[in-house]
Amino acid sequence: MRYQGESGAERIGVRLMAQDPISRAGLAGQLRNCPRLQLLGEEEEYDGPAVAVVSVDRIGETEMQTLRRFQRGGGCGTVLVATEIDDAGLVAAAECGVLGVVRRAEASTERLVQVITAAASGEGSVPADLLGRLLDQVGRLQRQVLDPRGLAFTGLAPREVDVLRLIAEGSDTAEIARTLAFSERTVKNILHDVTTRLQLRNRSHAVAYAMRQGFI
Length: 216
Description:
single chain, alpha/beta, five-stranded parallel sheet, about 15% strand, globular
């Protein structure tokens, strides 16, 4: 089902996931009256843009499993609201495909709506100091682990590589969806995520990037 706000713009479906009922109720209370958003039930189907908002205290293995589940589902950007975010948790969140990160202490309604709206368009939104820490971690990984082995940090998830490989072989969106057992919307979202995150112009540019990195 699709919903439109008063302005006629398509509303963003929001799925809430929290570690306890009080945290979930707090998020719902903040977002329920936002005209751009439509809160969704856990199993409610929604064919418009959708974002999962996951609220945690810190990022451990259990939380990573939740984030990976949303990543595997496709077609749904993920925003993480966390009380504590250390460097390991930050890298883990990035690996799990999280698009937006918000500290719980900074999670005002206005800030949440901004980050959710960005995630619905496939755009990342991370506090500047956290982004700096993430880039430091990636740089350290490249220098200490990958460089000695002649490897490169590509920023591509396995399913993104699969999609780009099929494009390089001449498959169209429908054929890719059938081959990988994805919906066409998921394939399009994967391509949008890759081109936006890596600042690539189009799918051809994305394929060229993957080929230069030696992935396809």
